[in-house]
From TrEMBL, chains A, B, C, D:
Residues 1-20 are annotated as: Disordered. It comes from Actinoplanes xinjiangensis. InterPro entries: Homeodomain-like_sf, HTH-type_TetR-like_transc_reg, HTH_TetR, Tet_transcr_reg_TetR-rel_C_sf. It comes from the Bacteria. This is TetR family transcriptional regulator. Keywords: DNA-binding, Transcription, Transcription regulation. The lineage of its organism: Bacteria, Bacillati, Actinomycetota, Actinomycetes, Micromonosporales.
DNA sequence: CATGAATGAGTCTTCATTCAT
DNA sequence: AATGAATGAAGACTCATTCAT
């Protein structure tokens, strides 16, 4: 982390055994960081969990941060994949519900790592970039959705789609944090319901035909 | 070896000089943590910034964590004080606007420390407690406001006040983070407007007499 | 901050090199404590004496006290082993002479460490325990010997074996201190002779057949 | 303790107030060392116990060791004074009993400090000198007594008075340690009786007229 | 490739002593 | 004289990284 490096730069593993060790380290790294947090995330702990020797760590990773970045990247990919709402779902409100449900679920698995890593984000530009990418994915998706609804006359046209997406996305994100980390005992399904109704009301979502704004 | 602590337990300074040094250390501590983050927050950095010798740190603080707690406590107090909305403000929507404006402003000054410290919250119960207290203040205040509006027939009675406060409070909190840390160039006043409109619409806030409260 | 220990808990070395370093540290530790006393016994001094880097200390020992305990344990074992009087020696007086001679000799090698460590004994329960064990070994052995002589009608039956062993054992112990530490120039062999005669007379040891046991 | 000194050398207090403070510090020092041991013996603790400010310490004492020396000197004087056996006591055995009783008693009050200080004796020549002086007092007195008894035909003439005094004096000294520090629950009066009988038997003390060696 | 020992700068904390008031 | 704040060298321990085998 800032020392000049004289070590051979790790190369992509060429043998099957190498691949296995490499992957085992990533899995172990994630497990360690989830179970013991940032402070417990040491090469020693990771290699021990992976069942390999200490030195092997630097055969595959340039540094602790290198492994961390890979873990975060994997967690981010996973989270985004799991958050995708199928195109087949047409009803706007149903899409909101589904997006929220999936976000809270995805978050339960991957966001632990992401949150834990946020501290590091103040120091490492690569990590900061990764986190921004994830955020951008959600904000962009939210903004697109809102814009489409506005164009369809289903949402308040005075709202700036991006600002609105940042705000409402933040709402869901923060609730995920509360659920997953502060362990306030919340009923997830009830929360999904509230989040969705709040989101819909906030943008003035109107059912195409009906007078009722929000389905009871 | 289990040696008992023999060092003077820090006491409140009795002389003016002592008071000055003590305060300088708290100021320096906050500055250091804001500029260099948790990782840069060392007794050495703090004393150097304050222009005193290393040992002086322990004249006033039991430990690094002791200072940290005081800084966080001060930041929390400051933040909450600055967030209070005057009782003289009666109009519900105006209160929402004011609360949001103040929150974003307070956050700009104090939340930097709080955010930076959140990582520590995974480890230290005192800090975690402090952060939870702050959150509880905002959640409680939000929930009370919503409940009152519901009782006055001005807000959607189907919403659980606490869940709603957590969600909408989270929205504002997260936006504050985005503004203050990720430095996405956002127009704060415009954001206050959006947050307030979203919050109001979300809970279905209705002007007592008029048909629609939110300006089109 | 209550960070959990993340450093590798020292394990027994698995390689020859590791064994060598480990042993070198123990040897160096004993040397340091003998030459510079408790106050000079620092990880830095020990590693420098052993010719390894500072950090290596903690590869093998959990703490300074950990090494200290091992040194003391080794010294204690060594001392007790060297103090054993062969069972083949039958004559009671000859056994007393032999025990004293061996004690003074053993003490010359090991007691330096033990004495130096006594100060620590006021603080650390493990060390205190070790020292008590050693004392108990000698007191127990002495008391047994006296009891047997009493039963054989060879020693004053009015003496409490344990009290007597504590007293006479203390005599030999203290003389060892004087010889080894205060460096009063004493003729060891002459001292052994005196100690043995005093011990024998004190318990009223009588040769089975003869009138007086102690040579005039 | 080895640093060049630039402080004004403390002078003997001239005012009554100064005298009082000076004495209070010595008393407090002894109390601290007895209650909290060597490790707790800090200028801070001493001044606090004496109820004066930290800096006052160096008004009266050059250093921590300076105070320590004065404490030890006082304890030594006290111990020796209390150990004196009145000249009016004529009977040799009674004198032995009295000397042992007084030694154990004196030791209970003063030896705590002395023992605790022995560690320092390895470092500081002044202290070592003080301890040697005390020892010499007892050894000399013991040797004189033995010599007189030998000259009176009451003790084994083959014993070297000095070696014997060292040995038997060591016996009593060590027993005092056991009683006072290791807190083996021993009946002091019974121990005095044993020590005296052992001492008398050891030197072959004979009652002037009688055949019995040791009075029952 | 794997192993595990070695490295040493860095961290927090202590405390005898000095100094300004 | 007294006060109590200031000093800073030194101590124990950590841990990311390197290296010999």
């Amino acid at each position: 982390m800032g020392r000049a490096r004289t070590n051979p730069a790790p190369t992509a593993p060429t043998t099957a055994r190498g691949r296995r060790t490499h992957d085992a380290l990533i899995v172990a790294g994630r497990q360690v960081i989830e179970e013991h947090g940032w402070a417990g995330f040491t090469p020693e702990a990771v290699t021990q969990t992976a069942g390999v020797s200490y030195g092997t760590f630097y055969t595959y990773f340039e540094s602790k941060d290198d492994l961390l970045r890979r873990i975060v990247q994997a967690a981010a990919d996973e989270m985004i994949t799991e958050s995708l709402v199928p195109d087949t779902l047409d009803d706007p409100y149903a899409r909101i519900v589904e997006a929220n449900r999936r976000y809270l679920a995805a978050t339960g698995k991957a966001a632990k790592v992401l949150r834990m890593v946020e501290h590091g984000a103040y120091l490492d530009d690569n990590l900061r970039g990764l986190l921004l990418e994830i955020r951008e994915f959600y904000v962009g998706r939210g903004a697109d959705g809102i814009r489409r609804l506005q164009e369809a006359g289903l949402a308040d046209p005075d709202l700036d789609p991006r600002l609105t997406a940042i705000a409402l996305g933040g709402m869901v994100e923060q609730v995920a944090v509360v659920i997953n980390e502060l362990r306030e005992p919340l009923d997830t399904e009830k929360m999904v319901d509230h989040l969705s109704r709040l989101w819909a009301s906030a943008i003035g979502l109107r059912a195409p035909g009906a007078g009722r704004r929000i389905p009871a």
